[in-house]
Amino acid sequence: MDHTIEARPTYAYLELTLNPGEKVATEGGAMAWMSTGLKIQTSTRGGLMAGLKRSMLTGESFFQNTYEAINEPGILGLTPSQPGDIVAHQMTGKELLLEKGAYLASHPDVKLSSNFQGLSGLFNEGMFVLRATGDGLLFFNSYGSIEKIDLDGEYIVDNGLAVAWDADLSYTITRARSLGSFLFSDQLLMRFSGRGSLWVQSRKPRVLASWAHPFRPVQRRDRR
Amino acid sequence: MDVQVEDRGAFSWVQVGLEGEEQFVSESGAMFRSSTNIDIEVTTRGGKGGGILSGIGRSLAGESFFLSTYRSLDGQPGDVGLAPTHQGEIRKIELDGSARWLCTGGSYLGSARSLELDTAFQGIGGMLSGESLSFMGVTGEGPLVVTAFGKLTEIEVDGNFTVDTGHVVAFEETLSYSVGKAAKSFIKSFLVGEGLVLKFSGRGRVYVQSHNPDEFGKSLGSMLPPRREG
């Protein structure tokens, strides 16, 4: 399986070349273009419960599609729903945790499951993150550009802006430190510690959404 | 103080390195990551001016009411990553103290603590038009970071130049400026579909942005479900 990521980091899309017999699992709805010879299999991957858990808890789609090249090589173009960056990550048995909605595609040997984040997860974007295990290529994406931080010690990331991190890293949710911050700001922070890799995105869709909010038309109250 | 613009096109960000007593101020909420030895203090103050009034002034200027101030807790080198709301480019401007800079609403991202921040209004005419015609004034010596919606372009004005208010990012006050209409009469202006403009004259730098955030907001807002009346 060959891959290229084009148009980084603003409109990044992934193009895969599958040789006969090769398969790739993708997020449902990510396919933008493909060779007609590819066979598509739609499943909940791991059964109904796994699919339900994935969609309800981690914001990923209920169905995952598997594309397979049968007799001849084929091309598969995958695009995320938001403009931004894509990272190709080679899994080597180490567990990786992904933020809600970050999953794009993976080698069939990469297993995905939802992972309960404990109560600290309540403050995170979702209470569950996606856990990836196994060997093979994994592709993930985010709104904004993605920066990799090789951590040995501690680092702080704004809540919801960590795209993916090694499971070796642990994190706690904190608030901005000083009293003034506590009173006036709602900035929750993820404080990572340990040794491993951490990927951070540079824009938050939620901030854009709250910026757009005042532009919505106003519905008048019924005064009768 | 080491301020680096990490150029990633539409998704650029700024990396600020702080050590010793160095302090940097940003629009509150702009920080997206930092080392653990960085203290974040959220205040209504900025620079040497301050207090609630200047906070309100800033929010009228289209900036967030609060500013965050960052410093190293232990004096050891630390770093802060700052990113704006919109997709667009970022520019660092080194102020040499010779002239005040004016930033339009939303385009101020951050500045060294040594720079003084204030709010400059454009009077009642500006208020009535509904467009933000107040500016964030920045004086002193040190780095100022501005952000654009879309592409950021520097224009060296020598003579006269006119820019739509929604496309102005920042400019040097060595230029004299006045708020006006694009066409001669108000009716004509309205028909042409152009709002208010800034008419610059003299010599100095103007930064402009390729896209107008308010226009984008209006085109997006009309497609969203209505919100309840406040």
Describe the structure using short key phrases.
heterodimer, A: 224 residues, mainly beta, 3 helices, 51% strand, B: 230 residues, 18 strands
Could you give a short description of this structure?
The complex is a heterodimer of chains A (224) and B (230). Chain A is built from three helices and 17 strands.
Question: Can you walk me through this structure?
Answer:
The complex is a heterodimer of chains A (224) and B (230). With 224 residues, chain A is mostly beta strands. In chain A, 11% of the residues lie in helices and 51% in strands. Chain A starts with a strand and ends in a 5-residue tail after the last strand. Chain B has 230 residues and is mostly beta strands. In chain B, a hairpin with a 6-residue loop joins β1 and β2. Chain B is built from 4 helices and 18 strands. At the A-B interface, β13, α2, β16, α3 and β17 of A face β4, β5, α4 and β18 of B.
